[in-house]
Write a structure and sequence with these properties.
This protein is an alpha/beta fold and about 375 residues long. Helices cover about 40% and strands about 15% of the residues.
C-alpha cells in the first residue's frame, strides 16, 4: 500500500485543501498520515477524519525584528528533529505540504530522509514558509498563472487549489429555506472570512435599504460581528459563520461579495459564482489578497473594489454590474483550466510516487 504524509497548518486555509486531497487518495487506497503542530487548528480538523495525527514543535518565522525570533529558531529546530524521526518511522512514499510554518521542518526533514515532497502555494507570491521550503521540494503547485514566474524553473506546476467535495453538494432550495428566503428574488451571499471584515460588513449594512429592493442578502459576519439592530429585516439574515449549511448557501447565491483569500476565491471559481472581491488592504497584510483579486479580475472571474474605494456608490455599482453581466463571468469561469485541481494534484502525486527518485515530468 502506498503511504503519504500530509502537513500544513496554522489556519484553516492551510488544511482544507489537504482534506480535499485526502478524500481522493483514500479512494486510491493510500495509507494517510498527518504531521501538524501540537494544538493547531489542523489537529481538530484532521482527527475528525480518522487520520493518524502527529504533533511537532512549531515556531513562527517573522520578517520583522521580534525577540521571539530567537526562541522560535529552537522550536523550529526541535520540530525538524521530531519530523525527521516520524518520517523515518512512517517511511512514506511522499510528503505533501499545504504550507504554514509547521510544514517547513517537515519538508526539510523529508529531503534529509530522501523522501520526495510536493508543496502547494495558494497565493500569487510565495509566503515566507513556502519560500524556505521550496528548495527542499521536487514540485511546487501554483494557484495562479502569474505565480509560475516566482518559482524555480522545472518545479512549478499550475494546478489551482483542491476544493472540498461537500461544497459541490449544495441544494438551492434548502439554502433558501434555511434563510427563510423566497425563490422569486436573487440572493447575495456576503462572506467576510472567519474573523469577519468590518469594512465589508458596514458597507453592506449601509446599503441594505437599496439592495433589498432587488435582492435578498445572507450575511456571514464573523465571530462577534452580528448586529441586533438588523434582526427581523425582511430579506436579510445574518450569521457569525456557517458550517454544515454552507454548501446550500453557495447553491442559493446568485452573487457573492467576499474578501480575496486564495482558498475562498478558488472555491468561488470552482462553484462558478459571480463575485465581487474586496481584498484586505496592503496596510493590514502583505498584499497577497490584492494580487489574488487582480489576477481574478484580469481573467474575467471577478469585479474588484479596493477597501480604500469601498463606498455605498461603488458597492452598488459593482452589485448591479456583476449581477446584470453574470453570464459573462460564469462563462469565463467555465473556460478556466483550474477547476479540477484535486485530480491534477493527485495525478502529480501518483507520478512522483511511481518514480523512485521523485523526478517527474509534470508538464
Amino acid at each position: 500500500m502506498k503511504r503519504i504524509v500530509f502537513t500544513g497548518g496554522g489556519t484553516a486555509g492551510h488544511v482544507t485543501p489537504n482534506i480535499a486531497l485526502i478524500a481522493k487518495l483514500r479512494e486510491k487506497d493510500y495509507e494517510i498520515h498527518y504531521i501538524g503542530s501540537y494544538q493547531g487548528i489542523e489537529k481538530e480538523l484532521i482527527e475528525k477524519l480518522g487520520v493518524p495525527y502527529y504533533g511537532i514543535s512549531s515556531g513562527k518565522l517573522r520578517r520583522y525584528f521580534d525577540r521571539k525570533n530567537f526562541s522560535d529558531i529552537f522550536r523550529v529546530a526541535k520540530g525538524f528533529r521530531e519530523a525527521k524521526k516520524l518520517l523515518r518511522q512512517l517511511k512514506p512514499d511522499i510528503v505533501f505540504s499545504k504550507g504554514g510554518f509547521v510544514s517547513v521542518p517537515v519538508v526539510m526533514a523529508a529531503k534529509r530522509c530522501k523522501i520526495p515532497a510536493i508543496i502547494h502555494e495558494s497565493d500569487m507570491t510565495p509566503g515566507l514558509a513556502n519560500k524556505l521550503a521550496i528548495p527542499a521540494a521536487v514540485k511546487v503547485c501554483a494557484n495562479f498563472p502569474e505565480t509560475v514566474q516566482y518559482l524555480p524553473e522545472g518545479k512549478a506546476v499550475l494546478t489551482g487549489t483542491p476544493i472540498r467535495r461537500e461544497l459541490f453538494a449544495g441544494n438551492r432550495l434548502r439554502g433558501l429555506e434555511f434563510c427563510g428566503f423566497s425563490a422569486d428574488r436573487p440572493v447575495i451571499l456576503v462572506v467576510g472570512g472567519s474573523t469577519g471584515a468590518l469594512a465589508v460588513n458596514e458597507a453592506v449594512r449601509n446599503l441594505l435599504p437599496t439592495l433589498l429592493k432587488r435582492f435578498q442578502v445572507v450575511h456571514l459576519c464573523g465571530k462577534g460581528k452580528t448586529d441586533t439592530a438588523y434582526n427581523n429585516i425582511s430579506g436579510y439574515v445574518q450569521y457569525e459563520y456557517i458550517s454544515a449549511e454552507l454548501s446550500d448557501l453557495f447553491a442559493a447565491a446568485d452573487l457573492v461579495i467576499s474578501r480575496a483569500g486564495a482558498n475562498a476565491v478558488c472555491e468561488l471559481l470552482a462553484l462558478r459564482k459571480p463575485m465581487i472581491l474586496i481584498p484586505l488592504s496592503a496596510a493590514a497584510s502583505r498584499g497577497d489578497q490584492i494580487l489574488n483579486a487582480e489576477s481574478f479580475e484580469r481573467q474575467g472571474f471577478a469585479y474588484v473594489i479596493s477597501e480604500e474605494e469601498l463606498t455605498n456608490e461603488t458597492l452598488l455599482t459593482a452589485v448591479n454590474e456583476v449581477y446584470d453581466g453574470r453570464d459573462n463571468y460564469i462563462q469565463a469561469m467555465k473556460n478556466s483550466k483550474l477547476t479540477d485541481a484535486a485530480e491534477t494534484i493527485v495525478k502529480l502525486i501518483e507520478e512522483t510516487v511511481g518514480n523512485k527518485t521523485g523526478e517527474v515530468n509534470a508538464d
